Structure formats: structure tokens, C-alpha cells
Amino acid sequence: MKEEFEKLAAAGKIEGKHVAPLTHLAEAGCCTHRSWGFGRIKTVDTVFVRFKIDFPGKPGHPMDLAFAAESLKAVPKDHILARKANDIDAVRHLAAHHIDLIKIVLNSFGGKATTDQIQHVLVPDVISDDWKKWWETARREMKKDGHFIVPLKKTEPVVYQAQETSLQDRLLADFRVAKGLKARVAVVQEILKAASDLKDKAAAANEVILILNPDIVSHQRTQPAVALEAIFARDEFRAIAGSTLAGDEVSAAQVWLQEGVRLGPLLENIPAAKHHRALESFKEAAPEKWADVLRGALNQVSAKLAKEIAGILVSNGKLNLLKETLSRLINQHGASTELLLWFGRERTEDFVDILGPEVFRAMLTAMERDQFNEKRSNRLRDFILEDQELLGELTASADIEVIKDLTRALQLSPVFDDMDKRSLLARLVKAHPAVQSLITGEQTKQESGLFVSWESLERRRLEYQDLVQKKIPANSKEIAIARSYGDLRENHEYKAAKEMQKILMRQKEDIEAQLLRARGTDFANAKTDVVGPGTVVLATDLANNQPETFTILGAWDSDPDQGVISYLTPIAIALVNRKVGDEVEFELHGSKRRHRIEKIEAWKTEAPAQPSV
Asked: In whole angstroms, how far apart are CA 579 and each of 40, 277, 459, 550?
């Protein structure tokens, strides 16, 4: 094409300076434009003196040759963009060979490119599935290969170098130039990951430890968290390399036991992956007081760290001490939002006896206390709103009066907006229908009071207590145990326990609704001018002229053999408000019966002592 362009220059159709760049463009076949991006040159038209180029969204775009020479940049055939344009299937096939593909990408960008640049070029055209997994494999292979420099920071470029350098030399070079102890610890972590591929572990360990030890001393008091990280990395490297211990080294125990060190703040400055190791080292450093110190720190740390602290206490036989601490903080409403966030998420069998309505009250108090620390308060609030089962589980075994008190507290709480509050109140009503009237301020006709004898009321209360204090907690424990068995889809024990939970909760709802309507009475000194609750009716069956006696008592009183009936039964409804001499008709056992009232007496003439409520 050079000769063709030279002829155009001789004819004055293009300038001589354009011949070389146009030749490069035509031979490459691909180009880039600063605004339109990558393009493929489809044709060179020497008659109309133009290229036809396929740009994204601009197929067959015509461009004057002189303009093309000055605005386009040639893309070589071995460039990753040109390879994708010319044979995308071949490039996709090459993706199985991570190193080869990365090498092409890096060479296309002058020997180096950041992770984001590499991802932008390959996804989704070449790598369409699970980029993260593909890139992790590529990083591991590059670290082993002697031609790549793989940085620790994502923003720094991956570099390809023609001269091969061993993995150990490259990692140690990174360690030497790292600035500050924290940066050096990060490099040591990379060295530890690649320890199996080091050619001389002992030599590498000796060099690293020699540099780390003075830094640990200088950071021991000013940055104890960083010093601890360095000690952990140093000791792990020594164990892998089998190097000897220096007599004057600072130990983890020395960091923990120095004056002024506070467990919670120090742990929060250590990466989460190292929390368990740090807690174990503190336990070894303070064998007499570690459990008490950890319990004291529970209320001052993040939810994630609270989980780690609880885990080490439980695994070391301190469950009862942990529960004692949690119970005290919850009952005194002193628990932090982070501690309650962890505890709400936990809800395991170990804590069934603590997980009750008071936990939710403590949550409300903690969020109100943290209203001006939105980051903490929002995390707990979001969890409460997202967990659809939390409110129901925390209040499952609570007495109806406690539920009503909790409902009022939620209605008055300033930590939820109106829409979220309505959502939570709806969950409470679903779990405890008896509080519906408290929320709406209404009570239907069907929800009017029930007159009951004190004896039957006491029996119903005892039935309710047995349900909420024994049967429901036992069922909650069964659910927690079954949940620990694994996959809930195939977990028959879990399904059975959940079904029983539905039955028990329905029973609880029914009894709560009944107790809410119940009005205890002794039925003493009832009026006898008409039939009513608390009266004994002597009547005659007009079909056979036989006398019958009906004692009309409360809604839950029934003893047919003794003639005791509830005032809500069809017989009682027919008799109530009728006088001596009246004839009444009612249905009994499917047949019509007709009776004449002969006498009305009071069931009791003296009021017995009222039972305590």
C-alpha cells in the first residue's frame, strides 16, 4: 500500500508526511480513535481517498485519508484488541493458558497494566464466567513465573519483564523496599502464601526476621496492633522455615501485658482474619484473667469481634459466664448495638433461655442511645427490619401483658420511621393477634368481654403459663438443634419442629385473645327476677313433664352431668332474660325441646374471697 499512498501524494491528494502513518494503518488493519475507540479498517479507497472503518456503533464509517493519518493510531496485529477483532475464538481458547494470555495483554500496553485494565480488556468478550476465580488462578501462576511482577495493591500495575527473576528474589526485593512495618507485614503474608515455592526458606526467614525485629520493638508501644501482626507473621515464618529463635525478641505476651494496652481497641485495629490468633495469644499471655477481660470487652467491640470473643469463651468452657454477662447487659439495657447485632444474628440453642422480649427492648434502648451514631444504629435497625422471624421468635414465650408493653414501646420509639414501624407492628400482630386492638384502638363486637369464673380463669392462666414457659421454649430448643443438622430442605426434624411451632403459636394466640377478653367474677348474689349468669334455673320439660335444673355460669364453665352450662350455650341463650312462668324453646341433640321456667335462684348468696391476680 505504500506505493499507492505515494502516488496519491504525488497527485497532491494527500501530503507526503501522511504516507508513513497511512501505510502503518493499512498494514495493521486496526486502529484506535480517541473518541470512537477501537476500529477495524475494512477497505482502502484510493479513488475517493478514504478508509471505511468499523467503529462500535458506527459500522462502515468513511474517513478521509488525510484526517485518518492525523487522528488514528495503528494497532499492531499482535495487540490484544486486534487479536480479539480478528479471531475472538482463538483468544478465548488461549484463556485456558493464563500466563500466555496475560503476557499478550501486558505487551499490548507496553509491558504493564493494572488489574482493572486487564479486566476491562478481557471481560466479557474473552472471560465470560467467574472473572474473580480466573484472575486468582492467573495471579498464582504469575507469582510462580519469573517474568511477572505482581503488586500487592490493586491500583499498581502488573509488570512483564523479559529477564527471569526467581520468586524468592522478587518477594524479598518487595520486602526490602516496603515502607513501614505494616507494609512489610503485608509482603511477609505474600511470602508465607508462596512458602512452598521458595528455594531457600531458612535464608529468606533469617533476612525477614532480622529486619522485622527492630521494627517490632519501635512499634511495640506506639502501634501495638501492628507490632502483634508482625510478631504473628514472624513466628509463622520461623515455624515454616525452621529457623532459630533470637533470645531478645519481643513476644506477643509482652505486647499484651504492657501498661495502657486495652484489649477491645487493639483488636479492632487487627485484620479480622487475625482476630482468633490474637485472642488465643491473649489467653496464653493472661491465663488467670483472660476470660474476665474478654467478657468486659464484649460490649465495646464490633459484632464480628463479639462473635470471635464469644466463640473462644464457649470453646473453653465459659458458656455460663458468657450467658451471665449477656443476661446482665440485656436486662439492665446496657448492651451496645453491636453486641445485640451479633446476639440477634446468633440465636443458637446455647442462648435459648436468654432470647426473649427483653432482648428487643434492649435493642430499642441501644438504638435510641446511638441515634447520633448512625453507622452503628443503622446496622442493628437494618437487621431488625430484614429478619422477618426475629420479633416472633423473641416474643414467642412472652406473656400477653409483656407483649402489650413491648408494643407500646415500639409505637413510641423514635428510631424507626412510620413505614418501618408499621411493618414491625404488623409482625407483632401476626405473631400475637391479641394486640391488634391496642394498635388500632378498636375492639370489635366479637371481641367484647367474656364473663368467666375465677376458678376457670385460673385454670386457663395455668394452661397459658405451661404453654409459654415449657412447651414453646422446648420447641425453640428443638428447632435450634434441628437447624444445626444442616441442609434445611432435607431436614425432617427441622420441618417437624417448625410445624409444631405453628400449632403451639396458634394455641398461644387463641388463649391470649381469650385472656384479653376475660372478666373474672364470682357470680355471687345474682339477680333472680330474670335468668342470667350466676343463676340456677328450675324448669319443666313440657314433652314429658320431667323437672330439669340448669346452672348458668361463665364462658369456660361446663359440667353437663351436674347441669352446669356456659351462658354462651344455645340453652342458656334461650333462657337468659326470661322470667318465671315463661316457656322457652331450644334445640338439644338435634331435636326441639320446650321448657317452662318454674323457679330462678342465685347460685351463690355470698361472695367468696377473690383469688389474687
From this structure: 107, 86, 33, 14
User: Is pLDDT above 90 for 567?
Assistant: no
* Helix (H/G/I), strand (E/B), else coil: 414: coil
Residues 164, 168, 171, 173, CA torsion sign? negative
Contact 41, 79 (CB under 8 A): no
Instruction: Report percent pLDDT > 90 for the chain.
Output: 54
> Do 254 and 221 meet the contact criterion of CB atoms below 8 Å apart?
no
Q: Using alpha carbons, select from 305, 252, 260, 262 the residue that is nearest to residue 282.
A: 252
Ramachandran sector of residue 271 (left: φ over 0; alpha: ψ -120 to 50; beta: rest): beta
User: Quick check: 257 and 224 in contact, CB under 8 A?
Assistant: no
Res 604: pLDDT:
77
This prediction has a pTM of 0.60
CA distances from 225 to 166, 232, 261, 453 (A): 32, 11, 10, 68
E-strand stretches of 35-98: 37-45, 50-55, 58-64, 72-75
- Nine-digit cell string for 455: 376458678
Work out whether strand 518-521 and strand 450-453 pair parallel, antiparallel, or are unpaired.
Answer: parallel
pLDDT exceeds cutoff 70 at 589: no
Q: Which of 323, 386, 412 is nearest to 359 (CA)?
A: 323
Alpha helices (H) along 109-223: 115-122, 131-144, 167-177, 181-193, 201-219
Which pLDDT score is estimated for 343? 95
H-assigned helices in 347-417: 357-369, 374-386, 390-394, 400-412
Does pLDDT of 27 surpass 90?
Answer: yes
Q: CB of 54 within 8 A of CB of 40?
A: yes
Residue 93 has pLDDT above 90, yes or no: yes
Q: What is the pLDDT of residues 260-319, one digit of tens each?
A: 899 999 999 999 999 999 999 999 999 999 999 999 999 999 999 999 999 999 999 999
